[in-house]
Design brief:
Largest interface: A-B, 44 and 44 residues
Oligomer: homodimer
Largest sheet of chain A: 6 strands, antiparallel
Helix content of chain A: 40-55%
Number of strands of chain A: 8
Number of helices of chain A: 9
Distance between the termini of chain A: 29 Å
Shape of chain A: globular
Radius of gyration of chain A: 18 Å
Chain lengths: ~240, ~240
Amino acid sequence: MDFRKPIKEFTKKFDFKSDFLFEGLSNTEKSHVQSLFEHIRFKRGSKLFYEEGIPTGVFLIEEGLIKKYKTIIGEQEQIFYIYTNGELLGYHALLSNERYQDACEAIEDTKVSFLSKENFENLLDEIPVLKENLLSNLAHEFGVLANTIGLLAQKTQSVRLAVFLLIMEEKYQKYDGMKGGIRLSRFDMANLIGATRESLGRCLKEFKDRGIINIESKAIRITDYKDLFERINNEESK
Amino acid sequence: MDFRKPIKEFTKKFDFKSDFLFEGLSNTEKSHVQSLFEHIRFKRGSKLFYEEGIPTGVFLIEEGLIKKYKTIIGEQEQIFYIYTNGELLGYHALLSNERYQDACEAIEDTKVSFLSKENFENLLDEIPVLKENLLSNLAHEFGVLANTIGLLAQKTQSVRLAVFLLIMEEKYQKYDGMKGGIRLSRFDMANLIGATRESLGRCLKEFKDRGIINIESKAIRITDYKDLFERINNEESK
DNA sequence: GAAAATATGTGATAAATGTTACATTTATAA
DNA sequence: TTATAAATGTAACATTTATCACATATTTTC
């Protein structure tokens, strides 16, 4: 039995799906949008924007992997989303006329198409369907974050890890076809699932010992999708 | 020293602030909006709408307390927001032309002003500032949910409880001036902070024994704001 | 390429949290 | 009102997770 389909169905709940934003545009409109893009590269570790920074425009990821995070309470940072190829980011601040409320940093070398604030706002006026799409996307994102809250509030670490492995596998699949496996830093990974680095390590080791995943020099590959998926669905909560 | 101000500053991070939605409207517009409202009551325990239900309109809470929750994975439900007086709810599904993605249930007797889907959509067309306000509010809500994710991912149960006590105190303040204290069921409270009912009970007891809160027949009152607030800010994370 | 800094792995231990089981209180319905 | 159900409190115990203290890679910098 193939678990790809039910897994995809499941991971959808944690996907912003912002790649549908340009759906419903005519070809003329699409190429108009295309013509306004400016292509920029970000090296691994560099930031696309900072918390409290003044919004400059939006970024469409051509190829890359980007973490979105924000400061909670003291100085602790929390990653709450990973973007990859085809996703649009940076529009929240523009839509609400506020400063950036979170930060974005490339966790792999990234190519983006940049659209300046001015061009973006013009486009929104010229192409009404774009504004509609953005609105429905914002509403959809609301559900994704709610699902994440539920996951963190109700599931044990190993289930949380199982979920994020499935999510990250798809992200890396889109990013580079999983050529080099999942290569998130252990810090980022622990942060994502709300665990300490050490606990995450132990969880990973257990998965490895059980033959669920394969780890070679940090790169993780899933070998037993069935186990991960059943673990998520069957395992009782906290 | 009064802790009210810094506490308010802090709890803002967990507040949807949807009560600003009608700001910027002229008096004529305001009374036009008013005229379209239909007044409805919901008894404690009754639902305003269900997950997967077809959106009928939006609800402005006149007086009440409402929990928003959704089903995560199996049949487990997760509460991720509590609405009170002055807040508008139910517009996500309308804006995205989807079914309701979550459910809302009155946890205290509630009076709402209901605006039908049709009237709501007409208003959005007639009063552009309303659409702008909704958009910025959606972007703001995004940040609130991200903060909640960080709280659940990084803080211990007792810190999470401290935060929710401060939040809930303000909600009840708006609802009935804290006349009867915080009266959330232990189930809902445990669900909100991502704990079991028993662990929550222990935490509450500890707070009570330390003189931080007062409990009389389920109703909770905060007696030591300073302690709660410092607990949140000083206590190291998980 | 060597040295320093950073990231990762691991084990012992402590602390936090969940589980089970049952008593007690409070709400609900007949 | 009484009977019944639901919610809450509590304690012993099991499990999960965090902390601490290092050893060992792996990267980065000069």
